[in-house]
Amino acid sequence: MTNRNKKNEFGLCDGVRVTSNGYEITTSRSNGSGVERVYNLPMVDEEKWIKEWENEGLHRALDGDKKQKFYLLVEFPYPSGAGLHVGHARSWSAMDAYARKKRMEGYNVLYPMGWDAFGLPAENYALKMGVHPSQVVPENIATFKKQCQALGLSFDWSREIDTTNPQYYKWTQWIFIQLFKKGLAYQAEVSVNWCPACKTNLADEEVLANGTHERCGSPTQRRPQKQWLLKITAYADKLLEGLETVDYSEDVKMQQVNWIGRKEWIDITYPVVGTNEKIVVSTTRPDTNFGATFVVVAPGHPILQTVKDRKVLEYAQKAENKSELERISQGKKKTGVFTGLYAVNQLNGQKLPIWVADFVLMTVGTGAVVGVPGHDKRDFEFAKAFDLPIVKVVDGDKMINSGFLDGLEIQTAISKMMDYLERKGWGKRIIRYNLHDWVFSRQHYWGEPIPIVHCPKCGPVAVPEDQLPVELPYLKKYEPSGTGESPLAKAADWVKAACPECGGPARRETDTMPNWAGSNWYFIRYLDNKNERELASKEKMKHWLPVDMYQGGAEHITLHLLYSRFIYRFLHEIGVVPTAEPYMKRRTHGIVLGADGRKMSKSFGNVINPDEIVRKYGADTLRMYEMFMGPFGQMVAWSDTAVEGVYRFLRL
Ligand SMILES: [Zn+2]
Ligand SMILES: [Zn+2]
Questions:
Q1: Which ligand is in closest contact with the Cα of 124?
Q2: How far is the CA of 218 from the centre of ligand 1 (A)?
Q3: 263-431 is classed in which CATH architecture?
């Protein structure tokens, strides 16, 4: 039997040592050499050893230890009712092997786990089950934890966190207040993405390129509403520069660079013939301007105020009443009306007819575009539909029919044209970003209350920090209303508050934070998960940060990964965290598909339950199989026969 109190040179209990083959355990059943090779196969009592590890504290990370630290982070899960996915098991087993290797190499390894349990999925699940989220979340967490332990993952459970714990979200709210104080959290009436199925607003990042909600797949709409926003755009350049200082895989970097979308534009002015009016058009491709043959303005463009033609105004009116999605949907027949006005292309003195068409939106750019039908599909379709001239100005990658640009390559032509337009006073360079401010309020129950009080005299006022957390009140009926009002508005007693500034009667903010709020900073809380005075102590942050290796899903690159870099950068600027970037290294894992090559889903009947594999073959079989499935970064389909093969191999 092993001796619990005595540790050998590997830091393991006496009688257990690590070899290149696995663990060797000296037991009374040992063979002649006194050593028996044991794998965690079903004949071994896995549960016993898991308890033993936990009791021994084998996987605890030591604060302030002299050994070199290594902070290894995996994305903490939303604990769904479905339990652990074999995809979780794959990613965490791989990093578990890495953690164990680092420990054996003499590092003081921090490999923690916690639960991202606020948000829509938990709320929708609870609604479906007809129970309260505060009841299902702890149950789901318990299941997840048991499953992790059954896999023998060497997480340091003493650091476990749960984003729905008031002692945790107290600090999520505290961060919001710091942002508010610096003017980086603000309210504005904005056109927001709305999911009619989930009855909630969504951030741009949550809407897929085809206009559907990334969670539920329903088509989204846009509608105006007063919202809280976080000014992530103020950090656009810093988030770009920061990428130069970290080791992220190239695809991760490129996705963030493209999402931030820093581009040099030029606003070009076109005088309108016979008036004092001008039209400004913004473009990144002024090199094609010799090929411009018409201008199209949005139905709400101010230039239309100079137009008297009833037909034009009626068209514009009708177009404005259509939804944006309807107006810009592809493949739709192009419509438009000539306004009777002309703009002058000052480059060559050519008169460009000004049209109005529904596919141009006032909310995009300046609400006017210059038609270059030789080099733009949409402009080409428009020119074809209305018999407008089409001029080619690029051949291969060289300019033609373009005066002083002829023979130049596109990139050179762009900057030469920008220089020329600026020199002439016809255009002005401007940097624009694809990134928008982050819509940060949700009209849902299951989230962190936004710690703001609205006073009729003082406006929005932050809840004093010594009154945090603002706890989420228990609401029996918590369904989203669908009117845009948060369910918390129904908690009349909770809503009533005294203004922290003037003491007068005021109302609490009833919107809650999105499910990304708790994950913005969770990796900081692992360092000091019971601290009541700070997010984490300065000393512990200095010891452990930044994260040395962060492993997670490709679907989070422009969501959680970008958001948390922004928040961390902000915390660095206000002197809370020790470094500018949170994660030194980022790698992505591929998804585990069903045996049929499709995404695992109940409706396809192809979901693999890791518990069953563990019961039948043992945790080591599952883990080893998943490590040999294929390249870690790629999608890979499940195979039952390969599991069998690994099992037989381990039994040899
Ligand atoms: Zn939805
Ligand atoms: Zn007041």
A1: 1
A2: 6
A3: Alpha-Beta Complex (3.90)
